[in-house]
Amino acid sequence: MDGETRRVVKRSRKPPPRSRYLLRWVGLGAIVLVGLLYARPLQSYFDAKHDLARRTADVQALKAEKRELQHRLAESSTGEALTEQARRLGLVRPGEKLYIVKGLSAWVHSKATTPAP
Fold first, then answer.
1. 112 in Cβ contact with 106 (< 8 Å)
2. Taking each helix axis from N to C terminus, what angle separates 79-88 and 18-76, rounded to the nearest 10 degrees?
3. What is the largest CA-CA distance in the chain?
């Protein structure tokens, strides 16, 4: 190099001033504070969402049960169903004779255990 001297400037790394560290800690503290402030509302939101899903399932089950009961009510209102229920209660029509057979279950049991010839 023709007469020019090059100066190499060495820069020493100085630690950042204390205010920078303080600013970083304040920023980190703010982020943690915001996270803590959002924790409870988020928990409430997820609890409410879970409760809503459970109640929706309950409503669907109750609707299905209602349809089944309405179907059974419509079925039980027919004359044939009323007659069948009356027979189960032991009621007879005028002019009919009621016969009560006792020991039927023992007879069926004995026939079931006896081998067929």
1. no
2. 90
3. 142
| Amino acid present at 15 | P
Q: Encoding tokens for residue 49?
A: 């969402």
The answer to whether residues 74 and 82 touch, using CB atoms and an 8 Å cutoff, is: no
Q: What does the alpha-carbon distance between residue 86 and residue 67 come to, in Å, rounded to a whole number? A: 25
Query: What number of other Cβ atoms are within 10 A of residue 117's Cβ?
Result: 3
C-alpha gyration radius of the chain: 44
Burial of 66 (0-12, 13-18, 19+ CB in 10 A): exposed
Between the alpha carbon of residue 10 and those of residues 15, 16, 18, 80, 110, the distances in Å are 16, 18, 23, 108, 112
- Verdict on whether the full-model pTM lies above 0.90: no
Predicted confidence (pLDDT) per residue in 84-113, tens digit: 888 888 888 889 888 888 888 888 888 887
